[in-house]
């Protein structure tokens, strides 16, 4: 087994920071030691295979992105990153584990959807990966299949209160699925937007000729996110099923989650970098058109970007500090402008929904440390430790400790990263929603289960290195 020693760095965890050396033995962390330690009289630096000098840098557990959509079929096309390209881009950005969504649609068997997702990922990933299960058709057959997911290492499933006719589940279906979740320990993930109301609002806008991408955000009113979040919380309360609300963007939805948590409920919220930095008005760009031009399609995602005049971003950062929001994932769902986003020219409803960020989450969240929005420790907690605990991987993932997988990032706080196509951009997209963002900080070295996959601007990983992670039940419940 190859041995590696990271020396001279500051090891940062969710609870503190300390000067320490980290010894890796093959795929596993063997020891966290006082700087310059010897072990049984051996000068470690002289006896290991590789020494990585982390002087002046942070040594943190590899990022865990718990919400991605590689190759997701959506709106007549499919998300443009494959498991090969998407996991490679993730590695470039310091993410060493991702949890993607296997898809079951109405009329299909859950087992078949899951088997298909395994086929797409197996042998193609640069980093470790797990799956949640999308249940796009709740019926007797899919409900009966849910308990079996746990043995497959899939301890969470997602339903949609949005997208009627596609993935939508009505309240009765959600109730039944949550009853199964309460009985089994599965974690229910919810896309909380009132889809039927949003579809009427969207149709009315189109009838008035308001067809540009900007109106995607207008149709998806925050009231319908708040309402759906509340409804999901009440169904969770009624059934006793823990609830995880994905991609929260409206401050009113955050308030609902905070209220439920204050009420003692096992209710959790995830936001994404786009809701912390980007706004509906950014989507108008530099256009001279009153309602923006088609460039705005780059930022069409659901839930949508919210207006900067309504205080959502400020509230979201605060919720990250107070733990009213516990998670930051990307909802990475990339589509190119060419041939994909352009499907919605003349009708925003046909623009495939999604933004690509899998490569940038650690950097973007580190800016919250730079600007004083969150602490260094909270950065690690949000990007690695809580995702591991929330989704049943903690101990192996999310921590630098003996016995854990050697998933480690050396992050240089004095470094710099310029985001954009032709700069740092390895996602399979012809644009970046983050074009022009300048980051104070840099992912220097990325180690995935003991193997250096990114170092000093070079990619050293291999397709197929990533293994499927069988997850346990959530370790975050109260
Ligand atoms: N939201 C997106 O932006 N893309 C895919 C699915 C979703 O819910
Ligand atoms: Zn969603
Ligand atoms: Zn999603």
UniProtKB/TrEMBL annotation:
<dbReference type="InterPro" id="IPR011059">
    <property type="entry name" value="Metal-dep_hydrolase_composite"/>
</dbReference>
<keyword id="KW-0378">Hydrolase</keyword>
<dbReference type="InterPro" id="IPR011778">
    <property type="entry name" value="Hydantoinase/dihydroPyrase"/>
</dbReference>
<feature type="domain" description="Amidohydrolase-related">
    <location>
        <begin position="58"/>
        <end position="453"/>
    </location>
</feature>
<dbReference type="GO" id="GO:0004157">
    <property type="term" value="F:dihydropyrimidinase activity"/>
</dbReference>
<comment type="similarity">
    <text>Belongs to the metallo-dependent hydrolases superfamily. Hydantoinase/dihydropyrimidinase family.</text>
</comment>
<dbReference type="InterPro" id="IPR050378">
    <property type="entry name" value="Metallo-dep_Hydrolases_sf"/>
</dbReference>
<protein>
    <submittedName>
        <fullName>Dihydropyrimidinase</fullName>
        <ecNumber>3.5.2.2</ecNumber>
    </submittedName>
</protein>
<dbReference type="Pfam" id="PF01979">
    <property type="entry name" value="Amidohydro_1"/>
</dbReference>
<keyword id="KW-0479">Metal-binding</keyword>
<dbReference type="InterPro" id="IPR032466">
    <property type="entry name" value="Metal_Hydrolase"/>
</dbReference>
<dbReference type="InterPro" id="IPR006680">
    <property type="entry name" value="Amidohydro-rel"/>
</dbReference>
């Amino acid at each position: 087994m190859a041995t590696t020693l990271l020396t001279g760095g500051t090891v940062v965890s969710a609870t503190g920071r300390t000067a320490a050396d980290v010894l890796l033995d093959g795929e596993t962390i063997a020891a966290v030691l006082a700087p310059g330690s010897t072990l049984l009289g051996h000068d470690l630096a002289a006896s290991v295979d590789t020494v990585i000098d982390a002087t002046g840098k942070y040594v943190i557990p590899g990022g865990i992105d718990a919400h991605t959509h590689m190759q997701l079929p959506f709106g007549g096309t499919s998300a443009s990153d494959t498991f090969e390209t998407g996991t490679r881009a993730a590695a470039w950005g310091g993410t060493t584990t991702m949890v993607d969504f296997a898809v079951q649609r109405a009329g299909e068997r859950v087992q078949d959807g899951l088997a298909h997702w395994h086929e797409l990922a197996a042998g193609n990933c640069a980093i470790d990966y797990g799956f949640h299960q999308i249940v796009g058709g709740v019926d007797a057959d899919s409900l009966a299949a849910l308990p079996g997911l746990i043995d497959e290492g899939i301890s969470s499933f997602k339903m949609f209160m949005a997208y009627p006719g596609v993935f939508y589940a009505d309240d009765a279906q959600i109730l039944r699925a949550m009853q199964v979740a309460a009985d089994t320990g599965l974690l229910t993930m919810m896309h909380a937007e009132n889809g039927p109301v949003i579809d009427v609002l969207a149709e009315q806008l189109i009838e008035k000729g308001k067809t540009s991408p900007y109106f995607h955000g207008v149709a998806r009113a925050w009231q319908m996110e708040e309402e759906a979040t509340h409804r999901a919380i009440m169904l969770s309360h009624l059934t006793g099923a823990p609830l995880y609300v994905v991609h929260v963007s409206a401050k009113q939805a955050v308030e609902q989650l905070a209220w439920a948590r204050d009420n003692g409920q096992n209710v959790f919220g995830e936001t994404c970098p786009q809701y912390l930095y980007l706004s509906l008005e950014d989507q108008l760009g530099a256009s001279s058109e009153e309602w923006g031009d088609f460039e705005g399609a780059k930022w069409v995602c659901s839930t949508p970007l919210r207006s900067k005049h309504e205080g959502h971003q400020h509230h979201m950062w605060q919720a990250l500090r107070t733990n009213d929001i516990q998670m930051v994932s990307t909802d990475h769902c990339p589509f190119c402008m060419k041939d994909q986003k352009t499907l919605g020219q003349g009708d925003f409803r046909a623009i495939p929904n999604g933004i690509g960020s899998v490569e940038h989450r650690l950097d973007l969240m580190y800016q919250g440390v730079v600007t004083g929005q969150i602490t260094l420790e909270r950065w690690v907690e949000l990007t690695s430790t809580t995702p591991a605990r929330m989704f049943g991987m903690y101990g192996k993932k999310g921590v630098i400790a003996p016995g854990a997988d050697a998933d480690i990032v050396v992050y240089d706080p004095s470094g710099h990263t310029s985001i954009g196509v032709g700069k740092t951009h390895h996602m399979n997209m012809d644009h970046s929603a983050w074009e022009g963002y300048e980051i104070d900080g840099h992912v220097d070295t990325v180690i995935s289960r003991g193997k250096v996959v990114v170092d000093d601007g070079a990619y050293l990983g291999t397709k197929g290195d990533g293994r499927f992670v069988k997850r346990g039940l959530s370790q975050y419940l109260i």
